[in-house]
Amino acid sequence: MNVIVNGAGIGGLMSAILLGADGHQVTVLERDPAPTPDPDEAWDGWERRGVNQFRLPHFFLPRFLAIVRSECPGLEDELDKAGMLHLNLIDIVPAEMTGGRRQGDEEFDLITGRRSIYESVVAAFAQSMDRVTVRRGCAVAGLETGPSAAAGVPHVTGVRTESGERFEADLVVDATGRRSPLPRWLADVSADGPDEELEDCGFTYYGRHFRSDDGSTPGIIAPLNSAYGSVNILTLPADNGTWSVVLVTSARDFALRRFRDVDVWTDVIRAFPLVAHWLDGTALEENVTTMSKIEDRHRRYAASDGEPVATGVVAVADSWACTNPSLGRGASMGALHSLALRDVLRSGDSSDPAELVRGFNRVTDEVVEPWYRSTLAFDRHRLNEVQAVIDGRTYRPEGDAMWTLGNALNEAAGKDPDCLRALFAGVGLLRNPEDRFSDETFAGKVLELGGEAANGQGADGMGPDRRQLLEIVAG
């Protein structure tokens, strides 16, 4: 099959790698003109204006590495050569909590690094493949169509670029990310738009990267994503002795907007004893990098009866659905989605353009959708919890068993090795959220061990309370 992938971010590149390795001829079209640099030049010299989070902290979960290992032979070696960091979630926890290494714990392996370095490796790997061609500085302007393959809907046969070049394709894969123009392009060819859900995830991020002198990263003595009352702190180890530290707040918490100030940001981090040592390095940026006005967006390219709005085109990764990045799920969800597309094409559905899109929508609903929904639910609850702290009240939601069980599991994980592994299976995107609690006996144990935390999360006593935090910010 001749495939056009629009967008050379990590989601688009993983789609190209998986499809190219499976025998398809893939052309990747990328708007940004800058060529892929060597990894050692990517941090300082690579500009990706089309990716607004390109220089912000990233983390790559175990599910991403699992896909690399099983489906992309050779890619892990290239990531290793570039200095990406290998970790196992079990190994960063004291042995008295894990019970020691078990058979199968290798599923908690991950390999992570800064986004620009990571993407440069994945891009070079894709470009080295015989069946993958990457064209940078090639901006798509719209879709080309031909005779309909399903009654009443357009059939996409390729794309045209802003320079007037035309590319024919049996399938167009849109991987242009959060701001995908695909709905507009579909409207231009008289297709119905997607069924879209959109809401502001409500978080603001304030982060900085650091580097050590000896290539080490700070000791991990708190969860990489820790909730402390009205803030979260992300401490994310990365490649070549680098790491990032991020303060996450509610976008409505105007009192904390002074986190943009480097001195205020530093004073706040130093006030939390479990993470203060993450400042003991050389800062790689002069200022605090901020990100806000992030949207949780979900697009379903199907009519109410399940029929596709167009054939010959599908959306993957953030072009399909994008979420709050604080859980680090984006790249892994995108890789999982790309793998689902590869599997649909393998199944034989590709012989019928309409059935291909129907099949891809079904697999998306089964495999990737649960992760989007669980992330969205987490966002809403965490924002409400933060607002409750700001208001000086306790957040006690009713009617959401998954939130209750999730909070209880966070507590139980420190008391029971099985609960710890169940927590990491969710953190690592290895098992669907509901699957972890499908065993009633296990769910009962979680509530027994972690019930006191079932109505909220946070590390009380491990840092300043709300009043003290505001005093630090005020100086």
Please supply descriptive tags for the structure shown above:
single chain; 475 residues; alpha+beta; FAD/NAD(P)-binding domain; Alpha-Beta Plaits; 3 domains; six-stranded antiparallel sheet; five-stranded parallel sheet; 15 helices; globular
Report the top-level CATH class of the largest domain: Alpha Beta
State the end-to-end CA separation.
62 Å
The portion of residues assigned to helices is 25-40%
CATH architecture of the largest domain: 3-Layer(bba) Sandwich
> What do we call the CATH homologous superfamily of the largest domain?
FAD/NAD(P)-binding domain
* Topology-level CATH name of the largest domain: FAD/NAD(P)-binding domain
**What is the mean predicted local confidence, pLDDT?**
93
- Uncertain runs: none
Number of helices: 15
Radius of gyration, whole Å: 23 Å
Largest sheet: 6 strands, antiparallel
Description:
- The chain has 475 residues and is of the alpha+beta class.
- It has three domains: 217 residues, FAD/NAD(P)-binding domain, CATH 3.50.50; 92 residues, 2-Layer Sandwich (Alpha-Beta Plaits), CATH 3.30.70; 60 residues, no CATH class.
- It contains 15 helices and 19 strands.
- A hairpin with a 4-residue loop joins strand 7 and strand 8.
- The longest helix has 23 residues.
- The chain starts with a strand and ends with a helix.
- The model has no long low-confidence stretch (mean pLDDT 93).
